[in-house]
Amino acid sequence: MLRLIVLLLVPVLILAAGSAAAGAPGLRFEVSFPADLSSMPLDGRVLLMIATSDDPEPRFRINDGPDTQQVFGIDVESLSPGEPAVIDGGVPGYPLHALAEVAAGDYWVQGLLHRYETFHRADGHTVKLPMDRGEGQHWNRAPGNLYSIPRKVRIDPAAGGVIRVVLDQQIPPITPPADTPYIKHVTITSDLLSAFWGRPMELGACVLLPHGFDEHPDARFPLIVNHGHFPRTFSGFREQPPEKDLEPEYSERFKLEGYNLIQQEHAYRFYKEWIGPDFPRFVIIEVQHANPYYDDSYAVNSANLGPYGDAIMKELIPFVEKKFRCIGEGWARFTYGGSTGGWEALAVQIMYPDDFNGCFAACPDPIDFRAYTIVDIYDDGNAYYSGEEWKRTPRPGRRDGHGRVVATLQQVNQRELVLGTHSRSGDQWDIWEAVYSPVGDDGYPRRIWDKRTGEIDHAVAEYWRENYDLRHILERDWKTLGPKLVGKIHIYCGTMDNYYLNNAVALMKEFLEGTTDPCYDGLVDFGHGAEHCWNGDHERPNALSRLRYHQMYVPTIMQRIRETAPPGADLTSWRY
Description:
The chain is α+β, with helices and mostly antiparallel strands. It has twelve helices and 28 strands.
């Protein structure tokens, strides 16, 4: 006979069955939401987290590191209030694959529904995706998502039974950041993206204004575009001194105590440099282009994401340049970024060669798909393993600064698949797929490889090569592209990049330094032993140099302007 156990008067109920020997059904979780949170059926991904503690909440503890907790996921369509989504032995999980693998014990359980919206795209496909709601495409803190308070329960797969989880909480909207004398926030509705997605789509920018902007109404300024992950506001700039009573936080990555204080100190130092008498007066923007697949679009046109490249270049940047009195010409426009932003900076320089006068790409995402981190998507048959017959060796997906593997490539992709099918995890490998792949028959991105087995689809790889392999595009089109890019390409990477991005940079260096007609006249530089986000600073450790992106490339930019500005160009109004 089943018996009802109420735990702490909260909406997590356990119906404990008899022993497995007595024929008990398999363990399952039933996840539902009440009508007072939504009277309408909902689409999305139901996630169930199981953790050994609730500090922090389990929804914030799913990651690629050794401290990750357990998660299971299942798609739901038109899930009605009170109707249970069932997580049972057949639902995939990470890092354990199945519910039966969870050892019997007491755990903290939390459920969440990542809500999807239906899009009727201009290409004729109808897809269901999680629209960004101001959080930068993060399922665990997206406003409107439903979740439960973590509660401690007894789990025993061998005993079977039902554990009911009610999602009675809703993540609240995010308060927009306020403007300051130097930082402004602008948003436009993109006609190009709205037409593609079949609903209004916005682009935004966090704008850093030069000192003296209002006092010099006749000045017109060069524009620097900082690409990267979704910025809530302009990062690394602080108009007030560091907080005196700030409690120091330890950085596990850099092994530094009080790294949060170091960050505030450097942000305030940049502000002091920015307003100093000798600092060039620029406008710098950080682009906000979160979308239904990720926290940014990779700043290029894409079959699955739409014309983000053109929308940024032809709608957002002209709007910013007009509103904030920028020069608005290619010789006075530069771009930089790190990691995702590094790929974007190099990509927009290549795909819009006349619109920028230089790019500074630090630790860029793979820029040669023969080294798609650790995989050659053209020649390898399987992404997860090297070797085929007698020996199969797992490929690493992430390493620490000493070369020790933190996660395999299969484990990273397993996590993404649990968080979202059809490239909907909102994470790294899925967004590469969404940006680079052709559209599949179902309207979602075609897989570059089977997410479960790792088998590579070489037809998809060929599409990637011709459209997004930056080294291949340069080599293929150097006769026409090369003359437009002379002196503009600067690439930096650490030799111990945590995601093996240095492999593709090395291949790009080999090509660029072998070109003579014309010579690229740029720079590809490596930081010996440096980890991810090394930006070309040979004087400071990575923990500090990564806090200086905004001022790092200014001397090179100024030299480039002096050498390449056309006759009669405005070189004085912005040098007050």
